[in-house]
Structures are given as C-alpha cells and as structure tokens.
Amino acid sequence: xxxxxxxxxxxxxxxxxxxxxxxxxxxxxxxxxxxxxxxxxxxxxxxxxxxxxxxxxxxxxxxxxxxxxxxxxxxxxxxxxxxxxxxxxxxxxxxxxxxxxxxxxxxxxxxxxxxxxxxxxxxxxxxxxxxxxxxxxxxxxxxxxxxxxxxxxxxxxxxxxxxxxxxxxxxxxxxxxxxxxxxxxxxxxxxxxxxxxxxxxxxxxxxxxxxxxxxxxxxxxxxxxxxxxxxxxxxxxx
Length: 238
Description:
Elements: E1 11-15, H1 23-29, E2 34-37, E3 52-57, E4 60-65, H2 89-100, H3 107-118, H4 125-140, E5 145-148, H5 149-152, H6 158-168, E6 173-176, H7 186-191, E7 195-198, H8 219-226, H9 230-235
Parallel strand pairs: 1-2, 1-6, 2-5, 6-7
Antiparallel strand pairs: 3-4
Helix pairs in contact: 2-3, 3-4
C-alpha cells in the first residue's frame, strides 16, 4: 500500500454523486486523471450526503435537503432515486442561498447558475447532482475527466468494484482519502497490479460570511466567497 501518489500511470478515484459536494471531493478530483461517479450502487439507508449538504448562515449552519421518494421502494440504486417535486423545496433552496449569500463577493458570478439548475425540475436525484457537480467542476477549473459507472457497464461492491473500474479505464493507481482505508482491501489492489494511494485533505480557512469559520461545508460556500482563488485553496489543503 502506498502512502502518496505515484507520478507514473493513470490515476483514478471514485465517489458517489453527492449533493453539492464538499471541497474534499474536488481535492481528490483535482489530483487524478478521472473521477468515476458511482451511480449503480445502492442508495444509502438513512441520512446521507446524497440528498443534503451544509452551508453557512447567520444562525451558524443552514442545511439544504432534496426530498426523495423512499416509502415503499425498498433498496434503490442511486440512479433510480426520484425527487419528490410535490413540495416547494426548490423555492426554499433558492431563497435560503440568496439570503445567506447576499453579501458574498462572487454571488452574482455563480449563484444564478446554481439557481437555474435547482429549479430545472429534475425527475431523478442523480440528474440534479450531476448537473451541480459538473457546474462546480467547471467553475473551480478541475481538469480531470468525469465518468459515470453506468457508462462503463460495471457493477459490483466494495474493493472488487473499484478494481474492475481501474481495469476498465486502464488505470494503474486508485486514489482515496484516509477515511476510506477501512473499507478497502489493499491486497486485492496488489494482486491485480494496482497501486492504492492515499492523500490527506486538511481544509484551510478562507474568508466566510457570518462569524467564526466553519469547516467542511459544501464547496459552493468556498466558490461564492473566493471565486477564482477557490481551486488554489483546495489544492493547498493537503
């Protein structure tokens, strides 16, 4: 098992397509050749980052949650999860972001695009999340390729799935954050001629609204406050 990223070969990473991801998501993406979004795995039971995230507010934190259809549907694959558009959740998201980030330096540069994505009436959660991830990728300037698991035609679980993805993309190295180590079997990477590397993400403080700094919010908070400097701040958070 390697502690650090080798310079040779193709490096990939993988992540569930979560809602308006935190900066650690883009730290991984910025250090690889391709990020694979796992849309053909089981939707997490209970609360998860798939349908919600945290933002800064005048009261400390603001949670934005996308309502999804769960009742009577049992275990669902991520790409099949539907949004419950019967409520006014989109209006609440837009109004919350407009209010809490009214004084953010880069509000007018990015927030209107986010609002247009949120109010687009996506039928499925993965479609909404992908549009938001692609927006953040472009706005931050992340250069790696985004690949959907479903595009590769690969299914599976755990380390076996990740090894199969590496093989499908002809990758030599899989990159993960240390928090994922307990879920990964390094022996399976080794036996398939693959390197398993870990990169730390230590969030740096940056200018925020509303008092004391709060760590690990959605990367949208960073983008609205720091604009073009955001990716450099992410890159230095290792």
